């Protein structure tokens, strides 16, 4: 069974279709990276799979179940989404933010429980934020802040995690820190992770599967070594490049050189 599937999915903004009749399967227990040029529909696809956008036609299946028919809290117990550039209210502490991840489990009959406490504690430990729990989110560095948001979705306790550009606005050190954390979560807990990434080389390094989107459709999908080729880079990004093995990891490494210069 796949973690997520789209079947004949069509999504539009007004009269303009972003996707039409899109079929895509996300492997359970794997890391999948969505790549493509700006405006190609990566974030729209992620938001539709998370049920934040309603498709005009077609369906999204969450572990085999039509997501449109599931109660909101049931979806939130099975899948978490970290949007691009999330913001927290001023003065909110890390602990208060992470506790928000337990909202799907709160009812009139059952408020805060020992189980909630356990998940929050584990999320803080996993992301290395235990010592910063009482700090306000707005006082953290960029990397720490992003880890706090990831801790919140970990506290949600879902097997599927969607992240929209989780490394945006982070320097290289914090990008690697965040991606290492996500990779370790997948390796240790087999969580399904789907993320939109701009850096093709980091996508190849951390993802088991790459989905390249071009002109609002899936151009190619599969293991990085099958998808990331010079011809794909030219078709999807309109950029000439050379693809070589990453000297450290052996994954494809894209060296772009554009149209202004030629290779020696």
TrEMBL record:
**Keywords, alphabetical:** ATP-binding, Cell membrane, Ion transport, Iron, Iron transport, Membrane, Nucleotide-binding, Transport
InterPro entries according to UniProt: AAA+_ATPase (IPR003593), ABC_transporter-like_ATP-bd (IPR003439), ABC_transporter-like_CS (IPR017871), P-loop_NTPase (IPR027417), Siderophore_ABC-ATPase (IPR051535)
- Per the record, the major location class is membrane
Subcellular localization: Cell membrane
Domain (ABC transporter) spans 4-240
MF annotations from Gene Ontology:
ATP binding
Q: How does it sit in the membrane?
A: Peripheral membrane protein
| Family annotation (PROSITE patterns) | ABC_TRANSPORTER_1, ABC_TRANSPORTER_2
Protein name per UniProt: ABC transporter ATP-binding protein
Provenance organism: Cohnella yongneupensis
């Amino acid at each position: 069974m796949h973690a997520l599937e789209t079947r004949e999915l069509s999504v539009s903004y007004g009269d303009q279709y972003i996707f039409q009749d899109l079929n895509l399967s996300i492997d359970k227990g794997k890391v999948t990276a969505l790549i493509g040029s700006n405006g190609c529909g990566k974030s729209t696809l992620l938001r539709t799979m998370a049920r934040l956008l309603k498709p005009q036609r077609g369906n999204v299946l969450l572990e085999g179940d039509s997501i449109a028919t599931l109660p909101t809290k049931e979806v939130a117990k099975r899948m978490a989404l970290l949007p691009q550039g999330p913001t927290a209210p001023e003065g909110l502490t890390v602990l208060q933010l992470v506790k928000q991840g337990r909202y799907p489990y709160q009812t009139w009959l059952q408020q805060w429980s020992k189980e909630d406490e356990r998940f929050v504690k584990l999320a803080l430990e996993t992301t290395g934020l235990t010592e910063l729990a009482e700090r306000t989110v707005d006082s953290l560095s960029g990397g720490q802040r992003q880890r706090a948001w990831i801790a919140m979705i970990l506290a949600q306790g879902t097997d599927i995690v969607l992240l929209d550009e989780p490394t945006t606005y982070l320097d290289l050190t914090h990008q690697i820190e965040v991606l290492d954390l996500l990779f370790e979560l997948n390796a240790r807990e087999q969580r399904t992770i789907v993320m939109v990434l701009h850096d093709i080389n980091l996508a190849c390094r951390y993802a088991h599967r790459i989905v390249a989107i071009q002109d609002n459709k899936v151009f190619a999908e599969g293991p990085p070594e099958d998808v990331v080729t010079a011809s794909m880079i030219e078709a999807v990004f309109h950029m000439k490049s050379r693809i070589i093995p990453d000297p450290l990891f052996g994954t494809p490494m894209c060296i772009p050189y554009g149209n202004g210069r030629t290779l020696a």
